[in-house]
Amino acid sequence: MPAIFDALPGVEVPVGAVSRGLAEMWAGNATDGRPAPEAEDARATQVNFVLHLGLNTTAADAAQQFEVVERFSQRYPSRIVVLCPMHTETGSTEIRAKVYGECFLGKSKADKRCVEFVMLSYSKGARPYLENQVSICLSTDLPLYYWAHRFSASARLADYRYLLSRAKRVLLDSAIAPDNALTFPWPNPNSVRDLVYSRLLPVRQTIGQFLAAYDPGTIVNGLRGVTVSHDGSVPAEARVMLAWLRRRLTACGASADGIAFHVQGPPAKDDGTLAVRFDYGAPGRHFHWHGELKTGHALFTADFGTGSTRLAAAVSLLAPDIALSEAMFF
Q1: pLDDT at 1
Q2: 156, 177, 195: which is the final residue of a domain?
Q3: Are residue 190 and residue 217 in the same domain, yes or no?
Q4: Cα separation of 218 and 66, whole Å?
Q5: Final residue in a domain of this structure, among 195, 214, 231
Q6: What is the per-residue pLDDT for 134?
Q7: pLDDT on residue 64
Q8: Which 3 state secondary structure label does DSSP give 321?
Q9: 58: in domain
Q10: pLDDT tens column, 2-37
């Protein structure tokens, strides 16, 4: 398996000379006529961002997540540190480093934003020295955001207390994280955010806006069951969607103990669907939202006793870099 460190772009530098390596990288870009910051404010960073690639990350996956963070940094200039654990232990305590930078144009030619990356490869033997090296690479007096991607066990990740305790947000993806990731006793559990919940923002908004046209009592009166069905690609989204519906319906006055909440799926055909159905005791009363994520089309059909409604709508999940910012800042 190719090392994830080698799959990422950048120039290798001595781990004790990261700052000098970044300066030399930009100087080389300018000499070669490639984009480089022309003033210090072009590199003004807003946040510190640590992307921690877990042992379950492949080289191809590492490159994909690097691109996600790169797109995110075009809107929110960041000092980005990417942590790359070694899959094969050598007994060495050496930490390797690479630096990478790129400049982007904003809304005008004068709005140039340049982003710096530091990649750190470390073995198990180098683990005790890692957080110290990370702290040196980060910008001072800026908030820290920590994304743990494809880690193998919550208990192993919990050992990184410096990052977990200092981070303003700890980002996890419950679709690929260990089963207990969202219930594990992290040092600062209030900082934990699930990227699945963030990806669902457009779906939550469109369903919430539709239901907001009705009186809450009308929606929950006689409600007996809530079902979220899904295809094979979005089981985590269905699970998170059901939990959100439980919270919102309870806030509307529903008794959660008297309503059956369950997830259904996946169907035999993998057709890219996510759907919500409310079941009532009264004949004719219903609510159904059916979204086709592959086509971007959705349909509402409902009757809460005030007349039948049928409404077409759009549906999508947030792009990974947008979901990242949603989880971090909102």
Answers
A1: 45
A2: 195
A3: no
A4: 47
A5: 195
A6: 95
A7: 97
A8: helix
A9: yes
A10: 689 999 999 999 999 999 999 999 888 766 666 677
Exposed, middle or buried, 1 (CB in 10 Å: 0-12/13-18/19+)?
A: exposed
| Residues 159 and 130 occupy one common structural domain | yes
Distance CA 183, CA 154 (A): 10
Assess whether 68 and 151 both reside in one domain.
Answer: yes
Domain range spanning residue 149?
A: 4-195
Whether residues 160 and 251 share a domain: the answer is: no
Percentage of residues of the chain with pLDDT beyond 90:
76
Contact indicator for 309, 270 with CB cutoff of 8 Å: no
Name the token pair of 300: 């509402």
pLDDT at position 44, please?
63
Token representation of residue 205 = 């908004």
Residue 224 binned pLDDT confidence (cut-offs 50, 70, 90): very high
Q: Give yes or no: residues 169 and 287 share one domain.
A: no
Residue 115 within any structural domain of the chain = yes
Q: How many CB atoms lie within 10 A of CB 32?
A: 8
Q: Could you tell me which of 264, 261, 265, 263 has the C-alpha nearest to residue 225? A: 261
Q: CB-based burial of residue 223 (10 Å sphere; 0-12 exposed, 13-18 middle, 19+ buried)? A: buried
Give me the number of domains the chain comprises: 2
**122 plus 227 within the same structural domain:** no
Q: Which tokens go with 252? A: 């509307």
Output the six-digit token pair for 230. Answer: 């899904």
C-alpha dist (Å) from residue 117 to 19, 178, 241, 276, 315: 11, 28, 35, 42, 34
268: which residues sit within 8 A by CB, 6+ positions away? none
pTM listed for this prediction = 0.94
Quick one: 101 and 242 in the same domain? no
